[in-house]
Amino acid sequence: LVGRCLGGWRRAMGQPALLLLALCAAGANGLYFHIGETEKRCFIEEIPDETMVIGNYRTQMWDKQKEVFLPSTPGLGMHVEVKDPEGKVVLSRQYGSEGRFTFTSHTPGDHQICLHSNSTKMSLFAGGRLRVHLDIQGGEHANNYPEIAAKDKLTELQLRARQLLDQVEQIQKEQDYQRYREERFRLTSESTNQRVLWWSIAQTVILILTGIWQMRHLKSFFEAKKLV
Predict the structure, then answer these.
(1) What is the pLDDT of residue 45?
(2) Which domain holds residue 208?
(3) Model-level pTM?
(4) Given CB 3.0 to 4.6 Å as the disulfide criterion, which of 6, 12, 169, 213 pairs with 21?
């Protein structure tokens, strides 16, 4: 999946199987995975807020006779769904056998990116085995700087300055996100410590009450037996 340049190590999960992927590179980062006819594959991306993410994918169908993956038919489509850390749907759209999806994060945290085929005809092709090549870019890596330079008529120096400004902005977002994570961790730690404290107090009170009850019970027992 995408490297740490977007937000750290990556967690990827498949339904029903669990898939762990951690790929990191300085430039483009990509992977490919296999899915069945009705199988869905989901990836967890840790993304700062207000960060644009671009994903490119293409699919290949397994040919049993030739024993090789061939380009998928035009009728085959992929459904892409993206959910933010709160479970809200950021993107839900149908694409073709090859496409590109874009979304912007508005909440920092783990975003779930799911892909699955929308076709029920895959069973005609050797059990519907499909290979999906996925490449995701985020932050300044998602910008097409040659296109920006041509559109805004920027010189090489101006374009380099633009890249540096975008990198600084992305670093600032990463720092803000790390502070956000630190704050959440601190609140969780304080809540846990408070619960442990109250539980210790409750245990102490229970022990004291149990001791008082035992003493009264023993006193009553000795008085009944006329030992005291």
Answers:
(1) 86
(2) 164-227
(3) 0.60
(4) 12
